[in-house]
Design goal:
With 194 residues, the protein is mostly helical. It has a domain at 61-166. It is built from 11 helices and no strands. The chain starts with 11 loop residues before the first helix and ends with a helix. The relative contact order is 0.16.
């Protein structure tokens, strides 16, 4: 896999430490290689859930949230509850035009949807992308740096198993295609529609 420009700033050790990889995933990494090459190693070894976690922590926050949005939307049923649709739309809105108002709106929609669906976790990822986790007039409580990646990984892993868990491996591959396209500078949508 050629180097992926959106992962250029990612540090393999930091991403791996934050990603909570399995023992096999940790053993598969080569710290001498860049993040793109390590993602490739994980995928070649079939460690796809580790690859999802690693990529979630290697992408810039905005791109990572977008990836979660694509995967969450991909798994929304045609009759999805309005609250789930609102959560993914709020996260997408933050990605398209990040602002403090949209970041906070994403958390409101995640809470309204409950925390059992990929759409909710995509919205949480947007909220945890920066700013403060405290109410607007309270002292600032910044989210920890790994929280966005954790919520993104959670959204994507949940999207793969929430329905038809026996097809999780196939979904991980599809979702990783979206993420790799994003990491290469694409929108992920071309891969989603392929």
């Amino acid at each position: 896999m050629p180097p992926l420009k959106k992962m250029a700033a990612a540090d393999t050790r930091t991403a791996a430490a934050r990603a909570n990889l399995s023992a096999a995933g940790i053993a598969a990494l080569d710290p001498a290689l860049d993040a793109s090459a390590n993602l490739d190693l994980l995928m070649k070894r079939g460690l796809l859930s580790d690859a999802v976690r690693f990529l979630a922590h290697s992408l810039p926050k905005r791109e990572a949230v977008w990836w979660a949005c694509l995967c969450a939307r991909d798994m929304l049923p045609a009759d999805a509850a309005p609250a789930l649709l609102a959560a993914v739309q709020a996260a997408e809105g933050w990605v398209m035009a990040p602002s403090e108002e949209k970041r906070r709106e994403a958390m409101v929609t995640a809470e309204a949807a409950g925390f059992r669906a990929p759409a909710s976790w995509a919205a949480v990822a947007a909220f945890w992308s920066g700013g403060s986790m405290a109410p607007p007039n309270a002292p600032v409580v910044p989210p920890g740096d790994p929280l966005t990646g954790a919520a993104v990984a959670g959204a994507i892993l949940l999207a793969a198993v929430q329905t038809e868990p026996q097809k999780a491996f196939e979904k991980y591959r599809r979702f990783l295609d979206y993420g790799i396209d994003i990491a290469g500078g694409g929108s992920g949508r071309e891969r989603q529609q392929a």
